[in-house]
């Protein structure tokens, strides 16, 4: 028994003195290494001693790598281990480190013109039920589409409105109206797509509108002008018609800091033209003439007044004389012959 | 900030010439350096070349004012003179109106000028001619438009309007936020 004991002791002692068969799994300062088992990641964010590092960089790096790896494997063996067909399996836990996403964040869907408008106006979408009660068939039917409820396209009779032309085909009218609405919607869809891709929105003539605005008509006119084989080169214009705003040409301005000298000359030229346009009047001469005219008029008026007053006075005196002294003056009037006769 | 277009220059000079006639030339063609007109946010600014160079380094959105503002283009394309242009108009004025000291305050509060407040008027002023308004000490107060010619002024009664008010130095206080 004692012999056996000594043998074991001696083996152990030899084992200790000899180099160990397996390297130790022990790591000093294991708490310095951070582990994320989910990603099999070990990281040591502590500072290195730079002086030491410069002396023997390879060794230090090797040691660090070994320590980190060892800590990672130690922690992995702490997890529950399964044995399947002679292999050890460890189920990795959830990752702790957040990685940046691989792909860019998806862009928001571009809003349509209506959505934009609705947001500004605060219009909310109210959800309508898909199925609607159909009075005719007494059952629920879809609100739109195939076999819809209250289907007005299946009407076999349409009342002619009071103010409508009686010979007008109301069925055809309904059909064309629907077609136009569909076409308008399609156009708006395309324009929304164009807008979202920031490509040029296709120019349209007159989209169907109830009351076209002035701007709308101007646009239509501009398009109509151009809609010839020669792109409007020979289209007749109205006299004094302003050039259209919708030419597709951008305004161009001269640079802010350009040639100041040429700019000055241009402005002086404009001034020159400007001064030529103003009719040249000798102001003092004109004023003097006006003054003289006024004075003349005034003097004429005064003359008239002075002439009138004595006449009136004469008349008054005459009338007074009549009242006072009878035919005295009458005797004085008339020609010589009659005077004499009357006296006789 | 950009130079005026041909059309804009025409309307602008049209308006200026009502006040200073062909003296606009003296504003453009100056002996003491190059000066120019620039349009910024519908307003016309008068500035020297150096000011222009400094100012054009600023972004358009950030630039509030540069040089001195002469006035603005309305949305219908007309030009309105601002009181800030007075310093440049007054020395070259062709037609002047002097106010009696009693009418001075009325004018500075933005009222038209009555015949009763009229001290003197330049001989040969026509109707609707732009005039610069001074007080009796030859201090420029603002400008306006003659409602009556010099001759017609003589024969009208004291309560008739002789000069329509357009801008006065009182606006520096009243319209502080509009002037730039």
TrEMBL record, chain A:
- Region of interest (Disordered), residue spans: 232-261, 288-344
Family, similarity comment: Belongs to the RRS1 family.
Compositional bias of type Basic residues: which residue ranges? 305-317, 327-344
- This protein's UniProt keywords: Nucleus, Ribosome biogenesis
Superkingdom in the source lineage? Eukaryota
Which PANTHER family does the UniProt record give?
A: RIBOSOME BIOGENESIS REGULATORY PROTEIN, RIBOSOME BIOGENESIS REGULATORY PROTEIN HOMOLOG
Q: What is the predominant subcellular site recorded for this chain?
A: nucleus
Checking Pfam families in the record gives: RRS1
The signal peptide, as residue positions, is none
Q: Name one GO biological process term.
A: ribosomal large subunit biogenesis
The name on file for this protein is: Ribosome biogenesis regulatory protein
Where are the compositionally biased (Basic and acidic residues) regions?
234-244, 291-304
Q: What is the lineage of its organism?
A: Eukaryota, Metazoa, Spiralia, Lophotrochozoa, Mollusca
Function of the molecule:
Involved in ribosomal large subunit assembly.
Q: Where in the cell is it found?
A: Nucleus
Any one Gene Ontology cellular component term annotated for this protein: nucleolus
UniProtKB/TrEMBL annotation, chain B:
Key words of the record: Nucleus, Ribosome biogenesis, RNA-binding
Family designation: Belongs to the NIP7 family.
**GO BP terms:** ribosome assembly
Q: Which SUPFAM superfamilies match?
A: Pre-PUA domain, PUA domain-like
Major location (coarse): nucleus
Source species of the chain: Lymnaea stagnalis
Q: Indicate where this protein resides in the cell.
A: Nucleus, Nucleolus
The molecular function terms of the Gene Ontology recorded here are:
RNA binding
- Would you indicate the residue range of the signal peptide? none
Q: Which InterPro entries match?
A: NIP7_N, Nip7_N_euk, PUA, PUA-like_sf, PUA_sf, Ribosomal_synth_fac_NIP7, UPF0113_PUA
Gene3D superfamilies referenced in this protein's UniProt entry, alphabetically:
3.10.450.220, PUA domain
Look up the record and report any one GO term of the cellular component aspect.
nucleolus
UniProt entry tagged with the keyword Transcription: no
What does the UniProt record say this protein does?
Required for proper 34S pre-rRNA processing and 60S ribosome subunit assembly.
Protein name in the entry? 60S ribosome subunit biogenesis protein NIP7 homolog
Q: Which residues does the UniProt record annotate as the domain PUA?
A: 95-170
């Amino acid at each position: 028994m004692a012999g056996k004991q000594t043998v074991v002791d001696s083996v152990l002692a030899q084992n200790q003195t000899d180099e160990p068969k397996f390297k130790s799994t022990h790591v000093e300062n294991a708490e310095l290494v951070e582990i994320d088992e989910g990603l099999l990641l070990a990281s040591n964010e502590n500072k290195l001693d730079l002086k030491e590092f410069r002396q023997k960089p390879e060794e230090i790096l090797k040691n660090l790598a070994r320590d980190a790896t060892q800590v990672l494997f130690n922690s992995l063996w702490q997890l529950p281990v399964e044995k399947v067909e002679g292999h050890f399996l460890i189920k990795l836990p959830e990752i702790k480190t957040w990685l940046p996403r691989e792909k860019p964040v998806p862009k928001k869907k571009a809003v349509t013109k209506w959505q934009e408008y609705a947001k500004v106006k605060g219009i909310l979408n109210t959800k309508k039920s898909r199925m609607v009660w159909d009075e005719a068939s007494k059952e629920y039917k879809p609100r739109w589409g195939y076999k819809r409820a209250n289907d007005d396209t299946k009407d076999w009779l349409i009342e002619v409105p009071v103010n409508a032309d009686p010979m007008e085909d109301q069925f055809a009218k309904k059909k064309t109206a629907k077609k136009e609405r569909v076409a308008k919607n399609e156009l708006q869809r395309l324009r929304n797509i164009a807008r979202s891709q920031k490509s040029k929105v296709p120019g349209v003539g007159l989209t169907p509108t109830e009351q076209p605005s002035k701007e709308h008509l101007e646009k239509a006119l501009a398009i109509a002008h151009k809609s010839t084989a020669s792109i409007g080169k020979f289209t007749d214009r109205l006299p004094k018609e302003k050039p259209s705003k919708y030419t597709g040409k951008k305004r161009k301005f001269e640079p802010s800091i350009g040639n100041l000298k040429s700019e000055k000359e241009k402005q002086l030229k404009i001034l020159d033209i400007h001064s030529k346009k103003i009719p040249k009047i000798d102001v003092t001469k004109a004023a003097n003439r006006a003054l003289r005219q006024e004075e003349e008029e005034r003097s004429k008026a005064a003359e008239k007044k002075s002439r009138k007053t004595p006449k009136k006075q004469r008349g008054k005196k005459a009338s007074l004389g009549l009242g006072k002294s009878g035919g005295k003056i009458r005797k004085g009037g008339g020609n010589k012959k009659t005077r004499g006769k009357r006296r006789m | 900030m950009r130079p005026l277009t041909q059309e804009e220059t025409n309307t602008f000079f049209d308006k200026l010439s009502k006040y200073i006639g062909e003296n606009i030339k003296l504003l453009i063609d100056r002996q003491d350096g190059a000066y120019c007109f620039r349009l910024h946010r519908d307003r016309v600014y008068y500035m020297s070349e150096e000011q222009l160079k400094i100012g054009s380094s600023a972004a358009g959105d950030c630039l509030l004012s540069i040089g001195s503002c002469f006035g603005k283009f309305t949305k219908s394309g007309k030009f309105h003179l601002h009181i800030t242009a007075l310093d440049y108009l007054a020395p070259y004025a062709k037609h002047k109106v002097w106010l009696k000291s009693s009418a001075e305050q009325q004018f500075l509060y933005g009222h038209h000028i009555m015949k009763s407040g009229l001290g003197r008027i330049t001989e040969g002023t026509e109707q609707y001619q732009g005039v610069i308004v001074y007080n009796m000490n030859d201090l420029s107060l603002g400008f306006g438009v003659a409602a009556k010619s010099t001759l017609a002024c003589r024969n009208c009664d004291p309560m008739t309007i002789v000069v329509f008010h357009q801008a006065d130095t009182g606006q520096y206080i009243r319209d502080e936020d509009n002037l730039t």
